[in-house]
Structures are given as structure tokens and as C-alpha cells.
Amino acid sequence: MSCQEKRQQIDRSHPELSITEQCAALGLSRSTLYYKPCTASAEDLRIMRLMEGLYLEDPTRGTRRMSDELGDLGVQAGRDKVRTLMQRMRMKCVYRRPRTTVIDAAKYKHPYLLRGLKIDRPHQVWAIDITYIPMRGGYMYLCAIIDLYSRFIVGWSVSNTMEADWVCVVVRDAVAVHGTPEIINSDQGSQFTSDEYQKLFKAGALCEGVKISMDGKGRAIDNVFIERFWRTIKHDKIHLCPPEDGVDLCRICSQFIHYYNHRRKHSRIGNVPPAVRLRMAA
Question: Could you tell me if 277 and 269 are in contact, meaning their C-beta atoms sit under 8 angstroms apart?
């Protein structure tokens, strides 16, 4: 069961079993049971919106330059504060860094498989990622999966948290409609190195046989196609029509992604929409 399903199994008024005993029986941490996502303060939201604009203007700004730019805008935010907000927003600074020290890979980190790979057919490679979406009264997250050959968005969802279970649902829904890809690429975020996500690709699981590829650490451009889609949906739609709430965000994303898939032409794929590219290769 997923963490959410385990939470739902807990009976807080059970006459015989305490919450501790129920958590132990389900293999659920009590901290996970009691955890409630923290909402950002109004001041943090204001700073995050400014940082979003600065990042889209120049994605190579690190914490030092971002802090300096905010200072020029009249916002006093140190590097630690900026770093915390960038992590919350899943904002990755684009730059090359020297590999002077190589540490042992974590259990669920995988090599980057796309370097030098010729992508010549649909559903050969999918890329998945999560991005921060600013709204009038807060923020949410958008998860999407793009087929690199056709640029077709094969799956997407919005959420107010970044739980691994949510990402797994997006993958399952995409596979149910389009079948399994040969490779799926992501960054090294905690959602993609989690037990829940990895179990999707083990023997006997839904996505058995799919190869997992992961960006190099600090290499945002390794997943450049989905990063480019984030820029497109934010510049062309979300920043022009800021959503009021989660329902409004779902509506906006649904409308734009349908337009992106079926109407918006892409010069890199023959100046046709992704859906046409997908049909031409079928």
C-alpha cells in the first residue's frame, strides 16, 4: 500500500490497538502519519514570485547572485534563505561543476542513458519532472511526462505536495494510456529515488523492463526538453493568467496542454504539433 492508503487504515479510536501499534503493523512511521505540509508565509510567497521571474530571465543565477538581485529589488534575503526557497521551488541553477571527488552512488541513483543516444521513434524515451507553480494565494506543483521524440505530453497532474505516491500515479496513468517506454529519465529528486518509484520498474511490476535514466547532479540541462516545456507553459499561459486556486490551475493546465499537444507547432519536429508527429510515426 502507498503511504496515503496506510494513513487511511489507521483507526484513531480503536478500542484495543494504539496508534503506535497500528503504525508498526502497517510499517508506517508515526511522523508520516502526523505530518502536515507547511504553508509558506505571505512574505515567502512574494519572494518566491520574484525569484521565479529572475530564474526565467537567467537560469544560471546561483544563491549569491539571486540574493544580490533580490537586494536590488528591495528584498533582504540571505543566501541560506534563498537556498531554502530554491529547494522548495525545485529550482536548479544551470552550470557545470568540476568532478574532483566521486562519492559512492546512493542505492537508487541511476546513470544518465541519453548522452549520444539517437531518439528516432515515439515512446523510446520519456522524461518526467516536477515544477513549482505560483498562484495568487500560494503555490502548487505540476508533474508532467514528455515523449522526447514527439514532444507529446503523455501524462500530467497537479498537487500541493511533492509526495512519491503522487509521481507514481502520474506514471501509472501515462502507461495505462500509452504503454511503457523503453527509457524514462528524471532528475535525482527524492521522489524519483524513493522506494515507491523504484518498485514501478522491478520484475513483475507495471513498468517491468523500462530502463531508468537520471540526470547528473547539478545538470539541469540533461533534462532540457521538459525544462523547455516548463518555460513554455509558464510564459505562454500561467504568468499571463495566474490561477486563483488548485481547481483553476487544473483547468488552465488542461486547456494549455491540450493546445500544446494538438495545435501548437514545433519547429524542431518539422513544424507540426506533437500529436501529428506521434501519428506520423505510428
Answer: yes
What phi and psi, each to the nearest 5 degrees, are found at residue 85? Answer: -70, -35
pLDDT tens, residue by residue, 102-160: 333 455 678 989 988 999 999 999 999 999 888 877 889 999 999 999 999 999 999 98
Among 91, 88, 101, CA closest to 44: 88
pLDDT digits (tens, 9 = 90+) for 170-227: 999 999 999 999 999 998 888 998 889 999 998 888 898 999 999 876 555 667 889 8
Q: In whole angstroms, give the CA distance from residue 24 to residue 19.
A: 9
Burial 61-75 (b: 16+ CB within 10 A, else e): bebeebbebbeeeeb
d(CA 226, CA 229): 5
| 155-to-117, 214, 217 alpha-carbon distances in Å | 23, 19, 25
Structural contact between residues 112 and 216, judged by C-beta atoms closer than 8 angstroms: yes
* 242, 138 contact by CB (below 8 A): no
